[in-house]
Amino acid sequence: MGKYDYDLFVIGAGSGGVRAGRLAALSGAKVGLAEEHRVGGTCVIRGCVPKKFMVYASEFSNQAAVAEGYGWSASQATFDWKRFLEAKDREIARLSGIYVTNLSNAGAEIVHAKARLADAHTVELEGKGTVTADKILIATGGRPWKPDDFPGAEHIITSEEAFHLPELPKRVLVAGGGYIAVEFAGIFAGLGVDTTLVYRGPNILRGFDDDVRTHVAEEMKKRGVKIVLGAQHAAVEKTATGYLNRMTSGGDIETDLVMFATGRRPYVDGLGLEAAGVRLNEAGAIAVDKFSKTSVDNIWAVGDVTDRINLTPVAIREGAAFAQTEFYGNPTTFDHDMVASAVFSQPPVGAVGLSEAEARHLHGKVDIYLSRFRPMKTTFYGGDERCLIKLVVDAASQKILGCHVVGPDSPEIIQMAAVALKMGVTKPQWDATCAVHPTLAEELVTMRDKYVPQGAAA
Fold first, then answer.
1. pTM (2 decimals)?
2. 375 and 355 share a domain?
3. Domain around 187
4. 404 an active-site residue?
5. In CATH, what number is assigned to the domain containing residue 375?
């Protein structure tokens, strides 16, 4: 080393930065990490982990109703928001501590400070001087985007504040149609909050298969979520009893809380990228090549700050690939194709591969296999919850291009489906798999008839 303080300095101790820093340190490199908040990043501290705890908590109200259908006496249980928050915060602190321990045991040094690039090899640490490094990795993730272009925008909160509400509101408006908005709408509704989801587009979950989008919206309405489409805010006015949401489409909505989940943006503010010569792409993310290298030869970036696939496991794999390449002499890239994803909506979604529209655009003629049904558990007590399973198949090669599941345990199901699709499974191979009965997942391997929409020619 000699010339620099560190072999590697990582800016951002989220999932990708921690994995890269730990692996690099285990190789014998001298590694430093800077984190301006808590170690663990978006996922552990203010993202998927605490949000999943909230999903679990909110599901019990529906489970109690289902239990009555199976012969259990009506439950008189009540939900204690403050007690839940205390338990959630304890678990988050424990997980953050594990990240710190793993880094320390690997020999990495953690600096709690905002970091800024002074040049390609120099990092300024707010209030703690400067350090130099041979290699620098940026892994600062993303932050919620909050609009400020309408009167009263100062009254809205984002998902990050939702994790620390002093009390649960009686009425909430969630603005947005992406997975974060949809998940929080389900959470609030499940906890007994009068919930309205407002989205400016024609349907929620843009980017997912259209049948999935429609199905989720219908099922959310059954669980009490009011969905207002084609609408957006003109103003938010504070009143004596809450907030009056004035919509551009008309129809004012009064609530106790207004939460915007209208997207996240790469966190590049104040990083000094210009001083180091790091280039951004048209979307405002750090531009990188397949090895996660930026426009500067000794600076890399992984995770949401690059805006490739913004998922925690992807950031981890990108960070690991960087470490393998630069510190183990094993050039490694992460393949971003066929990455499965889940939406922990209620009901949840699991998806991998192409939507029907994407497949038709890229491959032309495709075969569709689609099933909508009431699962066995729901049928027993006369419930009206319905599941959806859909396969998108290339007509010529019979290769399965996409798999989409909406229903209980769909995130668990899609993980195994992703293995098959990643290996290039064909529909005949898929069909040759024997079903596990009685399960919801068996529907995936028993669909034989191609789906033909009503009114369409066979």
1. 0.95
2. yes
3. 153-262
4. no
5. 3.30.390.30
Longest dimension (CA), the chain: 74
Tokens for 209, please give them: 């298969």
Print pLDDT tens along the chain (458 aa): 479 999 999 999 999 999 999 999 999 999 999 999 999 988 888 899 999 999 999 999 999 989 999 999 987 889 999 999 999 999 999 999 999 999 999 999 999 999 999 999 999 999 999 999 999 999 999 999 989 899 999 999 999 999 999 999 999 999 999 999 999 999 999 999 999 999 999 999 999 999 999 999 999 999 999 999 999 999 999 999 999 999 998 889 999 999 999 999 999 999 999 999 999 999 999 999 999 999 999 999 999 999 999 999 999 999 999 999 999 999 999 999 999 999 999 999 999 999 999 999 999 999 999 999 999 999 999 999 999 999 999 999 999 999 999 999 999 999 999 999 999 999 999 999 999 999 999 999 999 999 987 765 54
Cα–Cα distance for residue pair 186/182, rounded to 1 Å: 6
Q: Is residue 440 part of a domain?
A: yes
CA distances from 195 to 156, 168, 189, 258 (A): 15, 12, 6, 10
The catalytically annotated residue of 112, 336, 361, 437 is 437
The verdict on 20 and 138 lying in the same domain is: yes
CA dist 92 to 41, 160, 284, Å? Answer: 11, 14, 30
- The number of folded domains in the chain is 3
